Amino acid sequence: MTEYPEKLDLSSLDLAEEHRQEILALFPEVRTEDGKIDFDRLKLALGETVDVGKERYGMNWPGKADCFRAIQTPSTGTLLPCPEESVNFDTTENLIIEGDNLEVLKLLQKSYLGKIKMIYIDPPYNTGNDFIYPDNYTESMQTYLEYTGQVDSEGKKFCTNSDTDGRFHSRWMNMMYPRLYLARNLLCENGTIFISIDDNELANLRELCDEVLGQENFIATIIWHKMDSPKNSAIHFSVDHDYVVLYARNSELWRPNPLQRTSKMVSRYKNPDNDPRGPWLLSDLAARNFYSQGRYAITTPSGKIIQGPPAGSYWRVSNERFIELDKDNRIWWGESGNNRPGIKRFLSEVREGVVPQTYWPWQEVGSTRNAKQEFSQLMEANSGENLFITPKPTELIRKMLRIASASDSIVLDFFAGTGTTAQAVLDLNVEDNGKRKFILVQLPEPNNQENYLTISDVTKDRVKRVINLINKKKTNKLSLKPDTDLGFRFFKLSNSNFKPWNAELPKDAAALAKQLELHIEHVRDGRSQNDILYELLLKSGFPLTTPVESLTLAGKKVFSVAGGELLICLEPDLTMEVIRAMATRKPERVVCLDAGFAGNDQLKTNAVEIFKTQDVPSFKTV
User: Fold this and answer.
1) Which terminus of the chain faces fewer neighbouring Cβ atoms within 10 Å, N or C?
2) Within a domain: 68
3) 312 and 407 both lie in a single domain
4) Residues 382, 335: one domain?
5) Domain-ending residue, one of 295, 318, 346
6) Domain finish residue from 325, 346, 367
7) pLDDT over threshold 80, residue 521
8) How far apart are CA 192 and CA 391, in angstroms?
9) Angle CA 97–435–252, to nearest 5
10) Quick check: pTM over 0.90?
11) Is residue 35 included in any domain, yes or no?
């Protein structure tokens, strides 16, 4: 029997199938004859029975079933590289992607599954006119291509969510749910997601996150005091704050990085008694928590007897421990020696850094006014409002990064806006010599500005300006490591480089002949080898920043990926010599264009045998 190479799957990760295989691996006894799941057996295996006729706790809304269809429908799109719109394309590990974030998140599943340490998003707050999205999930990629003018269309299908619509909140949740679901898959086990929101959808966001990320993984709702002065034009109240909702991928594994003490915090520590252990802060000896040994009389150095702690409270330590602390000069009785005692907490002995708090005042992380001023100054504009209405202050994002990222983390923002997250990552890397990488995703939302036709144009230019600013500081002796990453690779979402077989066409001879004619050359017109290369990287599970080396083997161009782990040859006329040359390098995987064999079945079958002989585990064509 003639043996041919496998075809490379050009779809994004099939999440439903992945989950089915995980269940079958855990519970092989639930497998049916045709390899599916017997859910009744699964319930038995879990020791449970479910009466579907009874009411049960949960969240539901119109369109929720469509969310799951959206999640489970693989994307056949690709990300086209744009080196000319990038900075240091060949060496940088940062990414800016222009496209619908639902499709992009699907495309990132294979390559970035479990690799993202921190996600920050500033999604639409659903105020009635502030977001656009595809109406029809089943046509998500087609809708995007129509919206961006890449294919003909009867009209754009992206729109605002009017507050007069009968499904105002439902449509917002339909937009958010699949994106949160796909984002969760990308988080590493000790990763976190921060989400900015206001009162409009805070309650619904919490419910969505509880369902997608798990109620047990909720960490905190942070209050960002964003206004540096009240709005006297407000009808009822001046709304001075937004929220940042924080969830962990696994709250048992995640712990925040302690924050550095501010000079104001340190200044609270004094040393009125010149204790050789240094400055200290007085801590109350009494507490309201019950302690069985926490009721006893104390005699002050002046001879005054304190019968016990204040009513309803207890001393924090036993009498024996109190005597030990007093002998070690860790009890403070006041200047007169007659006060109720407190415990001295020495700065030299407290844990390094402080635990994050849930109230973030604008004086520490910036206000909306600061954000607009910062943005306008960077973009050399008269008013940030002309470019973008609601940028976030970079210090707000930097604080999140300090709490939740490591120095080499990958940080994702798939509602990137003007690119504040990228600036925060770059600035923090300069500050602490870190190697954090960012991935930004932004829809090419119309901006109606002469210099910036879309929001993604603003994103790209802002990051370029930040990089230029850092490079100028380098010339002024800014201390930076030589390998500090000051660049980004720019990609655009588009349809696959390969023409799909249209199974929906009429099943007649003329239609079939037309399909066959189109697939004689199944690579789309105008697509380069570079375009195809990055689609194959994505679809093969390699990050877009994977090192790629261009080789010449037997006179043919071959891409060597990840130090030779994957070899890709996209030449149109393959030869036995180049097949042997690739096989002798013993890669893990080889991918070639099917058209490269030019209908030579003998060469194709010989290639399969040669790769087998050289113990190459995988040889596929596309």
Assistant:
1) N
2) no
3) no
4) no
5) 346
6) 346
7) no
8) 22
9) 90
10) no
11) no
